């Protein structure tokens, strides 16, 4: 299990509120899958799968409604992630918790790039359609 789990950070903000909210939940669930006990992991994985189904369907609906140019590529990437999640759910149900933990690490690694390159374009598209401008994102600086 990853000792370096990445919780939510303002660095993930894209400036489209509904997307930022659903991304926050995604990041928190992935983090939880990395730190929760084995006995709870299968339930949490199922909760994550339900979240991801809703999350990806929501983004697909935004893309379809707005005739987003990169829709097919974006949806295809979501479908590949869901195929992996479903496959891992079957393995976890058979008792292989470790493969589920590896999925959580892979999702943690995947998300920042996906958000930066694919979701940020969608966020800009959605904000431009609704306001005529681009998102303005104010990010807090965390000091230690």
Structure report:
This protein is mainly alpha-helical. The protein is built from four helices and no strands. The protein has helices at residues 17-35, 41-65, 71-93, 97-131. The longest helix has 35 residues, at 97-131. The radius of gyration is 16 Å and the shape is globular. The chain starts with 16 loop residues before the first helix and ends in a 13-residue tail after the last helix. 22% of the residues are buried.
Q: What's the topology here?
A:
Elements: H1 17-35, H2 41-65, H3 71-93, H4 97-131
Q: Notable features of this structure?
A:
Hemerythrin, iron, 144 residues, Hemerythrin-like_sf, metal-binding, mainly alpha
The total of beta strands comes to 0
Tally of helical runs: 4
Structural class: mainly alpha
Q: Please compute the radius of gyration using only Cα atoms.
A: 16 Å
Structure in a nutshell:
The chain is mainly alpha-helical and 144 residues long. It is 71% helix and 0% strand.
């Amino acid at each position: 299990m990853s000792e370096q789990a990445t919780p939510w950070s303002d660095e993930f903000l894209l400036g489209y509120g509904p997307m930022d909210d659903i991304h926050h939940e995604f990041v928190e669930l992935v983090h939880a899958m990395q730190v929760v006990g084995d006995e709870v992991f299968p339930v949490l994985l199922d909760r994550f799968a339900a979240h991801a189904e809703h999350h990806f369907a929501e983004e697909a609906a935004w893309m379809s409604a707005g005739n987003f140019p990169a829709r097919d590529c974006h949806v295809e990437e979501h479908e590949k992630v869901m195929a992996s999640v479903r496959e891992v759910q079957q393995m976890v149900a058979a008792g292989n918790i470790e493969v589920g933990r590896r999925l959580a690490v892979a999702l943690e690694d995947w998300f920042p790039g996906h958000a930066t390159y694919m979701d940020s374009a969608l966020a800009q598209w959605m904000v431009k359609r609704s306001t005529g401008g681009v998102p303005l994102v104010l990010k807090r600086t965390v000091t230690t």
